[in-house]
């Protein structure tokens, strides 16, 4: 495997999150972890200067050794930052999409190695955040890159058909999830919100929903249709509902079976069915266990059903049994 710059830090002890299936009124990831985000109303005069100051103040080390390959990777990150700075100042015509994506991927890849191998320095965190300097560097660069990006697909893995919102995922040096980000469009450029806690979920589906009052929601889901995968990875069935409020989004409801001590998202307990699948119906806002007969999905009796109710800040997930 090619050598890559290695970040020195140690896996933090995550703050416990709510074990209740009811409405969640605060962000899943505490603001102390994400740190002080870039303010769209007061953008730094120089992207390069801002990122350099962030790197210097946090004593960030993107490399362990100075071999040619590692130095080239480090240089590619700063080249992308310089080009983003030029674009922000109007000194270049086109957004440096390829350079930015490579830089973000390089930093995340190095963070993944640190998480996978326990290479974090626990003494490197500042007093006002529980994230490490290298993580702060990634988060702030992503926020700046998203803000200036003219297209949402430049900074996401996939997005809604209308380009209103998208998802960006990163992994450790393994299939294990590391970070998931919701990128959404505002009148002042794209903004970023972390989904779930680091190392816990990978968002695979995104739904833009609205209620009778016209309020807009983003449903971030990490479930596929295979309940065996949800059972294998324990708490991998997770749903996060964000409410759009002006230029911001707020997490108003979440469903995590292990934390909520619920059954949905795990293998069926009292229904012996061959090859069951989990289906989400956007028209009814329900997830149900089904069997597939040809092109038709039939709900399984006595299996859990999860229902989402949209009601602004009081939105909620409810679990019941399909009789």
Written description of the protein model:
This protein has 323 residues and is an alpha+beta fold. The chain folds into two domains: 151 residues, no CATH class; 116 residues, no CATH class. The protein is built from seven helices and 13 strands. Strands 9, 10, 11, 12 and 13 form a five-stranded antiparallel sheet that branches. A four-stranded antiparallel sheet has the order 1-2-3-4, covered by helices on one side. A four-stranded antiparallel sheet has the order 5-6-7-8. Strand 12 and strand 13 form a beta hairpin. Helix 2 runs antiparallel to helix 5 and helix 3 packs across helix 4. The longest helix is centred in the N-terminal third of the chain and has 21 residues. The radius of gyration is 21 Å and the shape is globular. The N and C termini lie far apart (52 Å).
The number of distinct structural domains comes to 2
- Helices and strands, in order, run as HHHHHEEEEEEHEEHEEEEE
Structural class: alpha+beta
What is Rg? 21 Å
Number of strands: 13
Helix content: 25-40%
Write the layout of secondary structure elements.
Layout: H1 31-34, H2 47-57, H3 68-88, H4 97-117, H5 133-148, E1 158-159, E2 165-171, E3 177-186, E4 189-194, E5 205-210, E6 216-221, H6 227-232, E7 239-245, E8 248-255, H7 257-260, E9 277-281, E10 286-293, E11 296-299, E12 303-309, E13 316-322
Features:
2 domains; about 25% helix; alpha+beta; about 325 residues; disordered N terminus
Structure summary:
Helix content is 26%, strand content 26%. It contains 7 helices and 13 strands. Strands 9, 10, 11, 12 and 13 form a 5-stranded antiparallel β-sheet that branches.
């Amino acid at each position: 495997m090619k050598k890559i710059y290695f970040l020195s830090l140690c896996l933090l002890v995550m703050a416990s999150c709510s074990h209740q299936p009811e409405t969640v009124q605060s962000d899943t990831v505490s603001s102390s972890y994400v740190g002080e985000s870039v303010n769209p109303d007061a953008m730094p005069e120089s992207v390069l200067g801002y990122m350099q100051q962030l790197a210097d103040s946090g004593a960030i080390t993107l490399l362990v050794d100075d071999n040619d390959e590692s130095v080239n990777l480090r240089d590619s990150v700063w080249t992308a930052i310089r080009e983003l700075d030029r674009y922000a100042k109007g000194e270049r015509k086109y957004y440096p999409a390829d350079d930015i994506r490579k830089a973000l991927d390089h930093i995340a890849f190095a963070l993944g190695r640190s998480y996978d191998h326990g290479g974090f320095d626990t003494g490197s965190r500042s007093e006002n955040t529980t994230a490490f300097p290298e993580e702060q560097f990634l988060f702030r660069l992503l926020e700046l890159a998203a803000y200036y990006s003219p297209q949402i697909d430049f900074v996401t893995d996939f997005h809604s058909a209308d380009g209103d919102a998208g998802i960006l995922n990163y992994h450790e040096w393994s299939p294990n999830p590391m970070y998931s980000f919701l990128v959404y469009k505002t009148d002042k450029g794209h903004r970023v919100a972390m989904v779930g806690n680091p190392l816990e979920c990978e968002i695979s589906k995104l739904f833009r929903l609205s209620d009778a009052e016209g309020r807009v929601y983003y449903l971030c889901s990490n479930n596929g249709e295979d309940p065996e995968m949800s059972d294998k990875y324990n708490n991998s069935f997770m749903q996060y509902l964000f409410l759009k409020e002006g230029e911001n989004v707020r997490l108003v409801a979440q469903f995590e079976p292990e934390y909520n001590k619920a059954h949905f998202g795990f293998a069926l307990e009292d229904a012996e069915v061959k090859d069951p699948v989990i289906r989400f119906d956007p028209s009814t806002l329900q997830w149900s266990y089904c069997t597939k007969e040809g092109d038709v999905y039939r709900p399984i009796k006595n299996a859990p059903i999860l229902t989402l109710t949209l009601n602004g800040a009081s939105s909620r997930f409810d679990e019941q049994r399909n009789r």
